[in-house]
Amino acid sequence: LPPKPQTEGDETQGDGETEVPGPDDAKVAEASGLVRMLLQDGLVLLELQPSDYRRLTLLRETVEAAQAAGSDAMMMNRHVTTLKEVVGNLGPVMGTIEAKIASIADEDAKARLSSLKQAALSLFQSLQAFIALEMQTRAGAEKDLKSMRDIVAGIKLDKSSSALERVLEQLNTFNEHAAGVVNAVTNLEGSEEAVSEVMVAEEGVDRLVPQVKSYDQYVRLREHTLGATVGDPSFGIEEGADIELPPVEELQTAHSEDTVFIDMYGQELQQVSDWMMDGYRVVARGQVALVLIAGAIDGEEVRCTRDTGLPSTKSMLQLYAERLIRLQQLATEAVHGNGAGVVRPIDWYIMTSQKALGPTKAFLADNAFFGLHASQVHVFAADVSPPTLTEDLKIVMSQAKPGRMLRTATSSGDVFTAMRAAGMLKRLYASGVKCVEVQSLEDNIMARPADPVFLGCCRSVSLDCAAKAADPDHLMPCYETYAQLMTLAKTAQDFGKLVPAIGTYFFSMAYIKQLDALLQREPLALYRLTPAANIPQKGSATKTSGYMLTRHLSDLIIQHVVPGTQRGLVFIESEDEFNPVWGNPPLYTPETPTAAVDELLLTHTRWVENCGGIVGDKPAQSEEGQEDGQEAAGEGKDSKPQNQGTRSVVEVSPLVSYAGEHMDELGLEGRHFPEAYDLDLQGYGPRPGRTLVTPPPVLLGPFALAFLGLSMLKVLAKLQAQ
């Protein structure tokens, strides 16, 4: 209402009364419009009860809160529970809508209520679909996520093969749960980020699994080295378990594309002959050097100077030296013709331990280097000794030498570092050689030093480094045992990473220079932790286990150490080129103390018998005039007796034949060899149509005395028999 006009009489009213202001026209108009809008709103037309309004308000607030909850699983679970309760109580609201529509005659109001009904139905259906989806996926996804968290929290990389097996099982289970989560949420709107995070976790596990497998292999080998046995249940291997290894062609998948695989003796005869001729050229021109890693000591004796057990009583050093002499002669005559003399002898580098250096030098000098020139034999000590570590990877201090570290013995991969420290690498660079062959097993009695076929093969395909390796299809028992130590079928699938090298390696000089530069920049490159037992503890009488730092020549082939280089594995028949005399327990132990010597003598015997020679007691003449034993020998040329004790054998000196070549030129047809040691087969007899091969002058005296002594012993034996 408009204000009442004041009169003169009003002025006489009490002073305490105040004037009431009139209404604001603008606010009145705004309030009128709001009322009209509310009257048009379906909810107002419904005239809901206060409880229904509270339900709708709670529904709105819950939906808004759920949208804001994000990845907070606890809050989301609380809001979903509230939604289930609210949706279950929306029935009265829908009933009110239906009743109101039926009671209203105003068409405009009825249309508004019908629109509200459709919106409410759509909302109700969406909520029901959301709750159903949540009930189907959330429980499983949450369970999978919880399992994934528990697995990650429970992983423990213990130094136990059984514990590592559990870890591998846990990792596989982790990926199964992760796949379940991805399948559950991948089709949900806005799930891209969550799926991406789970897939990143899966990729991390995929990268971790091969590392754990590799560590598991190492731990298994460590357990065996420190006392576990193959048949031990804790070792996880059944006694006599079968090993199924992939063939050569499948090994390529375990190496990078720059690794060449060659089956040397699976080639055509002409190809092998071409490789041999290429190797002869390298040898005849003095473009190859031989490095022998030796110097192991048994008691007070240097092992490579010991009698190997052959009838000739030759040591490993003598066998190596005589094979080099024969190889130089073969190469020179193949390149320059029969009767040509050696112009460029092979440089022979022998790496020993510091303790074995003096005795080895003295042994070679006392025997006039077994016919080699003194200038081509270079003996040096390995001055590379990395520290020994405890299981906590702390340096072990020496008890014998206070204040100094306990050192690890030099391993095969240290050979070039040791050569540099001894000044031999500088000499090697200046000698003009093109390649180097390294023999890492000093007791391999069937080794072929500076093998011309191997050299020619590697050079023909431009290899920078290569290793002779055993074909997995023809593994010797030692490698089968080694594979068992590492694992069973699971690891056998990755056997390509465990190259069954036989200890013969090829390196180009360009590769050696790059490798030497790398090792000077990174002295600890390629070192691995090798388990060691009986490590003395400072201040304690008890000994503990720990680790040695070792690196191996095979790592230079397996791993891509020098970028841009070509690596190779050359597969050979290991039974023809690998038989260590003493072995290296526990990785390899000969079946018997004389197994390697027996096998070599059987090989020599086959050479003689294949050329018509008769080994052992002379057979009786048959009625047809043929020798029964000779016929039997001819039938059994390809047979392979089990050991020396089952038949007569004979020894062929490396001075006569490097690898069985030219045996037919010795006139062996019909000749009888009753004893294992025969002077003609030791190089003291003439060859028909060839120059007499004589040993060095310094050996004539000892061998003459030995022959005279054997003759006297035979005479005395006959006299005693009479």
Tell me what you see in this structure.
The chain has 722 residues and is of the alpha/beta class. Helices cover 47% and strands 10% of the residues. It has helices spanning 25-40, 42-46, 50-69, 73-88, 91-103, 107-154, 161-185, 192-225, 248-251, 269-284, 316-336, 354-366, 415-421, 424-430, 452-460, 477-486, 489-492, 509-521, 553-558, 574-577, 595-610, 628-635, 697-721; strands at residues 259-263, 288-293, 297-298, 301-302, 347-352, 377-381, 388-390, 435-439, 465-470, 501-508, 528-536, 543-550, 567-572, 614-615, 672-673. The strands form four sheets. The protein has an eight-stranded mixed sheet, with helices on both faces. A hairpin with a 2-residue loop joins β3 and β4. α7 packs antiparallel against α8 (192-225). It is elongated.
What is the element layout, followed by pairings?
Layout: H1 25-40, H2 42-46, H3 50-69, H4 73-88, H5 91-103, H6 107-154, H7 161-185, H8 192-225, H9 248-251, E1 259-263, H10 269-284, E2 288-293, E3 297-298, E4 301-302, H11 316-336, E5 347-352, H12 354-366, E6 377-381, E7 388-390, H13 415-421, H14 424-430, E8 435-439, H15 452-460, E9 465-470, H16 477-486, H17 489-492, E10 501-508, H18 509-521, E11 528-536, E12 543-550, H19 553-558, E13 567-572, H20 574-577, H21 595-610, E14 614-615, H22 628-635, E15 672-673, H23 697-721
Parallel strand pairs: 1-13, 2-5, 2-8, 5-6, 9-13, 14-15
Antiparallel strand pairs: 3-4, 7-12, 8-10, 9-10, 11-12
Helix pairs in contact: 3-4, 4-6, 5-6, 6-7, 7-8, 10-11, 10-15
